[in-house]
Sequence to fold (283 residues):
Amino acid sequence: MDGRYIVGVDGSSPSDAAVAWAVQRARRDGAPIVLAHVRDPEAGMMGEDFARDEERRGTDILRGVLDGLVGSGLAVSMVVLDGPLPWALAQAVTVHDVVVVGTHKIGFLHGRVLGSRSVQVAATVPCTVTVVPEVDLRFRRGVVAGIDREETAAAIARAAAAEADARGEELVIVQSVRKTRIPRSELPLATAVAAARAAYPSLQIRSRVSERPPAEALLDAARDKALLVLGPGSTDAARSPIGSVLHDVLLNVNAPVLVARPADARQLVGPVASSTRRTETSG
Fold:
């Protein structure tokens, strides 16, 4: 991995879950971790004293997490950024990084409020994003890839296959379609399977066509899996990368969701160092 794991940290239990996920991955990939706290964007409007208190609070939260990783052998740094959260993270990453944010395990009725931040982050940052819910992942096995169209099928499948291969687990590729007479061999699913097999010939791969609504089919497939890999809703820079399917999945997330963006599809954004208010390193 060429980039870093940049983890949103705010002292909540969802952010703790995000840190735990990123630590496991960074150890696997030999990648550095950046613990990022985004300061309240209204702090400065409340006066200098309030702004200093907010920065101090964020620094204390980060130091608490950083101290817990001393001796981990990982390269870990921390940074306090100025919000709003999605914009601050977007300005602090490169296309090679992976942003990791936690989210409450939610249902659709409450998700439009509680889950909106993860949707905003996934829509704004120009790199791969992972949204981690508060679920017990100890007994989860396997990776699911969601396929929707031909132009992104191979890239999503290869990204998901890389994850499954690294874990030594199976890959399940899912496409949801309306009732159609199109042969299975002509669906984007076939392209995805072929791409995954070509990249990882020894990987166990299963595929599934569902006539259920896409978000429902993906969430059902992911309910006992370790990871769900999706692509952005659109690769057109003029359109939002969050489509309705990805939006609904993130608001009802039941497994870590990795929204894969190929590094060569985006231009470089300013590195973390240029946005740092205070940085420390451990390990």
Q: What stands out?
A: The CA atoms of residues 92 and 273 lie 8 Å apart.
